[in-house]
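Protocol step 4 of 5: obtain the predicted structure for the target chain.
Materials: sequence only (see below). No template structures provided, no constraints applied. The aim of this step is simply to have a reference model before the mutagenesis design in step 5. Sequence pasted as it appears in the construct record:
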Amino acid sequence: MFATLLRQRMRRDWLQLLLWIVATALLGYAGYAGVTQSYGTLADRQEVLAAALANPVILMFRGLPSGASEGGFLAFEILPWLAMLAALMSTFLAVRHTRGDEEAGRAELVAATPAGRTRPTLATIAHGVLANAVLAVLTALALASTGVDARGAWVTGAAAGATGIAFLGIGLVAAQLMRTSRGANALTVWVLVGTFLIRGIGNVAGTPSDDLTHLTSAWPAWLSPFGWAEQARPFDADNGWPVVLAVAFGLLLAAAATALQSARDIGAGFFAESRGRAHARPALRSPHALVWRLASPSIVGWAIGGALTGLLATTLSGIAGQISGENPAVQQILEKIARTGTLDEAVITVFFTLLGILAACCAVQTVVRARQEEAHGTAELVLASPVDRVRWLADYVVVATCAVVIVVAAAVLAGYVGVAAHGGGATLYRAVTVTGLGQLAAASVFTVLTALVFVVAPRATIGVGWALVLAGTILGLFGPLFGLPEWTTNISPFAVTPVLSGADVDLRGLWWILLAVVAGAALSLGLMRRRELAGDG
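Step 4 output (structure tokens):
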């Protein structure tokens, strides 16, 4: 019975896990090409590490400096992101096969068989551990194939996979605590973001070595699974025990989740849902208002992230100018991403590319909610009223578009504050405005693409929608850093948005982005006229 449940999970998840695992391995492989092309000499890498140790914000978003070798610098650049991909894959897997199955009614059917309630959870644990083991092996092989030290490559892969197992346990516990899969996923994402920042704080408060190539983290870094992954120090000390610590932590939480499951009823949670109002407010009279009500909490969270991104963009522009005076490698890589403009404008372009990714995630999450409502049967109740299918989908597309505007507007306003606080000129205000509006257009592409997938292949909406954002992120944000051909980078809408070029605005790919948005919206809404509801079967 256990083997049957495990095979069922593998058959159900093979495509999603394939995308996550291959993307992680490719990120590691492409990272080596980027390091060798952009930081080909030992002196270049030493300069960047010295600049990072002098700038707390860079340490927040990079790994733990552990030497200036090619492998050590590679781990400094990409290990946190490899670990984050493994963590996201694992948390979604854990929630999908536990709380998600309970919501869909599958868990109760399986529990009525000789499998009971415990074996499905044990099968999910084994499934998650195997997925992370495969991720670790393929990532290590991808790195080893570049010619770097094999031992360091295997430690890097193991650190990423161990972080995934740690977050597998976190996801399993969250699924027991929260009553809905949405609540469990939200809790795990907040834990992920929080622990990532705690790791960064531990590095910022750490002690650099005399030669400015190594850093000893402060104690907060040891409170985070991301910190444990970095303490493995691939291509330097190659410590194995932090990897073991992460695995033990994940398995301990998995055992705790199994115990919590036996203490509650199917469908129940330890954190009860808050009671709603007995009567709806007047503003909640239309299907459009209902979509706003469902999406508003997540939009607020993404808007806060957008505001922080805009503030960092304009705050760091001055710091980057000081660093680049002593470090031409930093200036070169920033200008490679921005392709035009001054260094200050290049920093803003880099951070606003991240903003576009955040806005796209917000849009995809909003459109994906339409699929969730359809799968759970609640969409049928709305469509039983005088609301046709096109109007229903259009409400989600409109709200997703408005969400993108809100996230970008929060970043632009925060960027204005940063420019004013640091005495920036009118040019920086224009750069913030132009790049912000450009990323608004780029994020809207993912809104209509996800809506089109929802119409054509509804059961693939969640997987394909997030895979599109992941592909756009890798090509648009990491493509220039990894030395990918220009045409592959230009596939991503994030990479071809308008930027400020001196006194003029370089529109770049704005027209095809707008054409894609209009065509995608018209096609998705047009096809929705003939589409029947697709349940979760």
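Step 4 remarks: Residues 287-326 form the longest helix (40 residues). The beta strands are 207-208, 215-216, 499-501, 504-506.
Proceed to step 5.
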